[in-house]
Amino acid sequence: MIPFNFDYFKPDSTEEAIKTYTSEWKLGKKVVYFTGGTEVITFSRGGKMTADAVIDLKGIPDCTVLEMVGEKLIIGAAITLNQLIESDVFPLLSETARRIADHTSRNKITIGGNLMSKLNYKECILPLLVAEAVVVIVGPKGMEELPAEKLASGILEEGTFLTQIKVPVSNLNLPYTSLKRTRTTKVGYPIVSLAALIKEDRIRVAFSGLDEYPFRSAVVEATLNDRTLSDEQRISKAIAKLPTSISDDFLASKGFRKFTLGILLTEMNTVLEGQP
Amino acid sequence: MIMSNTSKYTVIPLLVNGQSHDVMVRSADTLLHTLREQIGLTGAKHACGNGDCGACTVLVDGKPMHSCLMLAVEAVSEEITTIEGLKHSEMRQAFVEQWAIQCGYCTPGFILNCHALVKEHPDADDEKIEEWLQSNLCRCTGYYEIKQAVKFVLEMNKKNG
């Protein structure tokens, strides 16, 4: 049971959501946005967060679209992971989403919730990073489009929320692979997770689980695309050039993560370079 | 805009097993709590409370959902099915006939999830069945028999066209 009370609002438009946020915030209330709500509910139950007001974004049409508009795929923030998987409009995103949580939970978890998670893994961002997606943010100051990487580590400004993700159609159906290793079971947080695709004969890859935030690195990609090197050399040099220190925590030691990363990069090369 | 506030309990309508119920809830009440404590449907079990075990699974518009991860206020306008609404289902009968029950605590959640699986994927293969069954934990580890029950219903449905 959630041990505190809150007001629940389900606005019909972004304007109404912002208005509600502003009026509640001015009353000194702690306000949170909510799409799938799995994290809000579990964190609240576990005493990790509180809220005086919850604004459910599922009633906002902008947040529930999943459609092609011109040269962009538009994904509403309240689209569930299973809706993404079943539509399979962006196969790399479908494959990555399929490895997040369990099937039943994916009926509730939304892409917006995953991207705005307080946990660091945010695996749905990996396909967005390599596909050069942009995200649409709405807040009291208006609407703004940002590169998806701004969500990797960023905390949005007070009162703002994610409404949509826009992915260039030209990046939806490129050769890809999505790989993940967990500590033990198939369902779990990643020791290492990566999403990669090939565009114009160059590998693009983004990582989660290695450090505090998901990331994509130009230096790592340059090394992985250096065809003057052998596979083994490319991978060991790429690992040496990671722009971050590798985590050492309860899921895996630093050494094991590094070892696992090497295996996943080898698998990635095999899959991607074996494709036409 | 739908609103539910904290100062008083709010009365909301819930459609459960084809019957409409007006229930008094806090905004923070989960669907699981409301089903059990307000409507008296105790088939959905409280266990992990964290969406990890599936003992609280119900169907929301035909989709399996951890009712511990859903607020009751979110379920307004949705069609909810609990194990009490599947009394005469083929999946329930298959669990009995295939001995897919041991202590029984996880059974309602499993039956609902498996029922949704065969409805959504009448040609489900082993991979699909395992993917769906990962959502539920059986503390007695009766997974083999549970999988057999699913396969039994899939086969029966195919035979019956």
UniProtKB/TrEMBL annotation, chain A:
Gene3D superfamilies in alphabetical order: 3.30.465.10, CO dehydrogenase flavoprotein, C-terminal domain, Uridine Diphospho-n-acetylenolpyruvylglucosamine Reductase, domain 2
UniProt cross-references to SUPFAM superfamilies, sorted A to Z: CO dehydrogenase flavoprotein C-terminal domain-like (SSF55447), FAD-binding/transporter-associated domain-like (SSF56176)
Single GO MF descriptor: FAD binding
A Pfam family per the record: FAD_binding_5
The entry's keywords: FAD, Flavoprotein, Oxidoreductase
Domain FAD-binding PCMH-type: 1-172
Taxonomic superkingdom: Bacteria
PANTHER family associated with the record: XANTHINE DEHYDROGENASE SUBUNIT C-RELATED
Protein name in the entry: Dehydrogenase
Lineage of producing organism: Bacteria, Bacillati, Bacillota, Bacilli, Bacillales
Name of the gene: xdhB2
Automatic annotation (TrEMBL), chain B:
Keywords assigned: 2Fe-2S, Iron, Iron-sulfur, Metal-binding, Oxidoreductase
Metabolic or biological pathway, per its Swiss-Prot or TrEMBL entry: Alkaloid degradation; nicotine degradation
Protein name (database record): (2Fe-2S)-binding protein
Domain 2Fe-2S ferredoxin-type positions: 10-86
GO MF annotation list: 2 iron, 2 sulfur cluster binding; metal ion binding; oxidoreductase activity
InterPro entries: 2Fe-2S-bd, 2Fe-2S-bd_dom_sf, 2Fe-2S_ferredoxin-like_sf, 2Fe-2S_ferredoxin-type, 2Fe2S_fd_BS, Beta-grasp_dom_sf, Diverse_Oxidoreductases
Pfam families noted in UniProt: Fer2, Fer2_2
